[in-house]
Amino acid sequence: MIRTKPLRRAALVAAALAALAVSCGTTPEPDAPARGRATTATTVAPEATGAAGTTSAPDGADALPDDSTPPPAPTTYDPSAPAPGEKVRDAFATLQATLDDSCATDCSYFLGRVHKELQELDMAMKADPKGPGHFPEPIARMAELNETLGGDASYPNLKKHQKELIGTRDFINTWMQDHPDDYR
To answer: Could you tell me if 179 and 92 are in contact, meaning their C-beta atoms sit under 8 angstroms apart?
Structure first.
């Protein structure tokens, strides 16, 4: 006859371990508020007050609940915003990726992307350790383009100045190709 007691015990241990594994893998629920009276900056339990009086949180518009600091303001991601801190070679590579594109499929996207890549390359050239004087012609050409655009990167304005935008991209591409040690 087979003893079933050790098998049952092993099965119970295995079931308990499986239950623990499942319970450890779930997302914990937020802590429920403590039962009874809690002492915080805004409330004081009666037994915590003494001859000195009650403690209360600061009043007014600047008062925060529980003396906590506010969470940072959410930031939104703007895909058309230039990426700060990019290296010249990386910015130039992404600009070159626009060379085979055109307005044929999505002109708004294309012109916005060319503008974004030019702005990133301009920022990278100005922040380069060699100094902005190392890229005089591309930076001057970007200044001309930015003056022409007048700070307006909307599609209608980019479309209006498409020739200048694409011309600047092509000029900078040619200039950079003639100066390979500046971006490699």
So the answer is: no
pLDDT in tens, 82-97: 455 668 889 989 999 9
Cβ atoms < 10 Å from Cβ of 6:
9
pLDDT tens digit sequence for 2-21 = 555 666 677 667 776 666 66
- Are 182 and 162 in contact by the 8 Å Cβ rule? The answer is no
Tokens of 153: 């990167």
Q: Alpha carbon 106 to chain centroid distance?
A: 26
Cα four-point dihedral sign 162, 167, 172, 177:
positive
- Measured CA to CA in angstroms, residue 157 lies from 84, 85, 95, 122 at distances of 24, 27, 20, 20
Helix (H, G, I), strand (E, B) or coil at 93: helix
Amino acid letter, residue 40? T
